[in-house]
Fold this protein.
Amino acid sequence: MITEYVRLEVRRTLRDTGFVIFGVGMPVLMYLLFTNLGTDEPAWKTASMVGMAAYGALGAALSVGTGVAEDKSIGWLRQLRITPMTPRQVVTGRALTGSVIVLPSIASVLLAGALVNGVRMAAWQWAAVALALWLGALPFTLLGIGNGYRLSAQTTGVVNVACNLGLAVVGGLWFPVELFPSWLRALSSYTPTNRFAELGRAMTEGGAPGVAGLTVIACWALVFGAYAVVSYRRAGRTA
């Protein structure tokens, strides 16, 4: 049941032209602009590649929530509630959908780094970066799902854009956190996006993710997961 549900949602998302342009194309464009206007340092091109791949994954993950809100508005949620699927299974299915659709966003930026900007790493590092970003995107998928079930379709779109931009900037996905004032740098270290990008950057340096970073991401995943389940149940009562 869940497998068929995930397959259906993935097909619907990947056929969306808006998703392809803004979820896949925009991070690549921003990456190439940020790294080819001014400095030509290889280290910056590598670090920015990870940050923009994380940004693409963030946007793709949150977009799952926009689809949820649209489905809720047309009555699809009521149809799901008469199936044998439990609330946790529905949320899990949406989370798995998000895990699939973040892959094109991650892969496109990594390919741009390798083919256009000449980023060079060992084969295992490329695989490790992609895997770390893929797994680390889960909390943002859950956040998007929670927004989708709790808010209207129009409001979800606005809130997801705000979350996308706010988390990207404060988390240091666009600019190095070393440029931030000390108070903002301290705040950034507690954001899921900062630790998310840290996963990939650790791999590019041949290291492993730190315990603190993994702990922060795990805590946010639990918070956003609970938010998604509660939002689904609330939407079911009001549908």
